[in-house]
Amino acid sequence: MARQTAADHVFDNVVSDILAGALRPRDQISERDLVTRFGVSRTPVREAIKRLFARGFVESGPKGVAVVMDLAGDDVRKLYELRLQLEGNAAPLTCANVTPAELEELRRINRQFANALGKRDLVRMLEVRSLFHARLAAATRNRWLADILVMLRDRAYVVRHLHWQDAERAAQTLQIHDQMIDALARRDARRYRELVAQQIRAGLDCYENQLRAPPAKRRVAASGEVRRARSAAK
Q: CATH: 1.20.120.530, 3.40.50.720, 3.30.70.1150, 2.40.30.30. Which one for 73-212?
């Protein structure tokens, strides 16, 4: 195995922060902060940031500073349409090939998710659920399909961060995970595929509902206008 370079180390850790929600869409990534954090020179940091641009995790912000990519609504919908299609194709493979040891591992991971949920630890929740779905993808026994499923899910971080800020929705995810494991244990491919699709659509619905909702400041301003109008009427 090739030895990890300083640029690899910086890149891997920043990607992990993005996927886990420690870095959020539109957050700036400072060269100086990375140099200080990892104790390396600017050369590997700049190489890591260059790779972040190439992989589509960041885009150019004010004054050319790298900022975490924030997907537009139409891009998110196209991404989720593709996820629904490919996850639907993968479901029978996962159901047919998952082993008892993998099922036990999924149960263990879901217990970790429940623990993180109880602590309201969003970063840990995102980390654990990423591991849960990576195990499901690997169980297809198709390395190319698994790689694509993980890549598409990683790029959906914008939706996941928003979806799980609601504790009730996160609790529903825990329940669906349990149901997915039960369906896999029964080799019920149809039920498993339904649950996978339900989970994907729930995230997209939450995201689109947020887009349709009026901005918080607008709602606060409107409430102030109502109060002033009532005072004037007295």
A: 1.20.120.530
